[in-house]
Each structure stands twice: as C-alpha cells, then as structure tokens.
Design goal:
Elements (H helix, E strand, L loop, with lengths): L22 E2 L5 H4 L21 H14 L8 H15 L28 E6 L4 E5 L6 E3 L2 E2 L1 H18 L5 E10 L9 E11 L2 E9 L5 E11 L6
Parallel strand pairs: 1-7
Antiparallel strand pairs: 2-3, 3-7, 4-5, 6-9, 7-8, 8-9
C-alpha cells in the first residue's frame, strides 16, 4: 500500500568496492563486549569437526538426489520411494540435536556439509572483506530455470554471519536483510559473493554484500543489520 508523503528509510548500502577499516565505535576485544562470548550468548558452542568417513560422499549424493527428485518416469516413483524409505530406516535411529551431528560443522565441505545450504566455500576471509564461491543447481530453481529469490536471500543471510565472524564480533542475530535483485541468478554457474561490514555501533553491525557472475555482472546485492546477542539470549 502506498502512503502519501512516506519518507524512505535509511539506506545502509556501501560502495561496491569497499576499502579501509570498518567504521566502528567499539574496537574492544569481543570477550570485553560479552563475557559469555565463548558460549555464543544462549547458543550452544558449535565446534568445527573433521569430515567423518563417507560423509562427504553422502552429502554429494544427496545434493544430486535433490536435483533429480523433481522428475521421474511414472513407473519409477514407487521404486524411488522404496529406496528413500530404506535410507530413512538407516538414518532414523541416529537423530541428533543441532551442533551434534556433522551437518553444518564440516568446514572443509561445500556448505559446511549442510544440505539446507547451496554448496558454498570461503575463498577470502579477513575483517575488510569476505569472498565466497557458490553454485546453485536445479534443486534451487524457483521458476523458468532461475534461482529462487528466497535461496539468494538465504545465501546473503549466511554471508552476514560470516562477516560477523570475520570482524571478530560476538554471535549476532539478523535484525533485517534487504535484497535488491538486479538480474536473474542462473543455476550451474560458479558465482561470487562478496561481503563486508560498513559500520558498527554498539551491539549493531551494518553489513553489505553482492552476488556476481563470472563476467562481473551484478545479480543481487543486500544490506542488513546484525545485532549482538545479550549473554544468555537465544
């Protein structure tokens, strides 16, 4: 709904070629900001682990299965369902809470081994800029062979969290995330996402990111606000 006289909100977008130090009013050690820093607020402390034997192969196969699950011969659905149910029977006895199983904790694997995420890997990581390579596939299509906008937004949200770690801030929640879609995001193409923090004010970190194709075409850009958790805050 359009409201006459409405004024635009603040724009925290930063230049696409960031340089220099993050603008901040607090350069203290994160342990000074949050005495419970090592426990990540109310979060359990997740630790990166080595790849369990066979887990990387399993994740790769599951990603391919996700891509192929959109279509099959009419006579094959029952057979496919039988095999999926067999897999469920193997995995069901070992259900675990977040941060216990390997999913999302194997940094050496694309997407840290999480099937929720598109396969991404960090290429560059420092307080000034983070660069991640990511490639979407058929599973991530929204329509007309283009990546679903929600998948692009989720990847930007992941980047926001990586930026927070890169600048040495305690774990933070996403307060808002604004995404501008500039061009169709393709599948099966290696893409680059770059992100940086533009300003830090107390518990607030303002972050920016962009997604480009191999030719440097801007596909989408985002700006967000990350708010540091209080001790014990979920």
């Amino acid at each position: 709904m359009h409201r006459s006289g409405a004024r635009p909100g603040p724009d925290h977008r930063a230049p696409r070629r960031p340089g220099g130090q993050v603008v901040t009013d607090d350069d203290r050690d994160p342990h000074d900001l949050d005495p419970d820093y090592d426990h990540h607020g109310g979060f359990p402390r997740f630790q990166v682990i080595d790849e369990p034997a066979g887990f990387g192969r399993f994740v790769t196969a599951m990603r391919r299965a996700q891509d192929l699950a959109v279509s099959a011969a009419e006579t094959d659905w029952d057979q496919a369902a039988d095999r999926v149910e067999d897999l469920i029977a193997v995995l069901a006895p070992h259900q675990a809470a977040g941060g216990v199983g390997p999913s999302g904790r194997v940094a050496s694997l694309p997407g840290a081994g999480s099937l929720l995420m598109p396969p991404w890997q960090i290429r560059h990581f420092d307080p000034e800029v983070v660069e991640v390579g990511v490639q979407f596939s058929r599973y991530h299509v929204g329509g007309n062979n283009a990546v679903h906008g929600g998948m692009v937004a989720m990847m930007f949200d992941v980047m926001c969290g990586i930026i927070i770690h890169a600048i040495g801030r305690p774990i933070s929640r996403t307060a808002f995330l604004h995404v501008d879609y500039r061009n169709i995001t393709p599948i099966d193409v290696p893409l680059t996402m770059r992100g940086w923090a533009s300003k830090v004010e107390g518990r607030k970190s303002f972050v920016n990111a962009e997604l480009t194709d191999p030719n440097g075409t801007l596909l989408a850009e985002a700006n967000g606000l990350m708010v540091r958790l209080l001790p014990g805050q979920p």
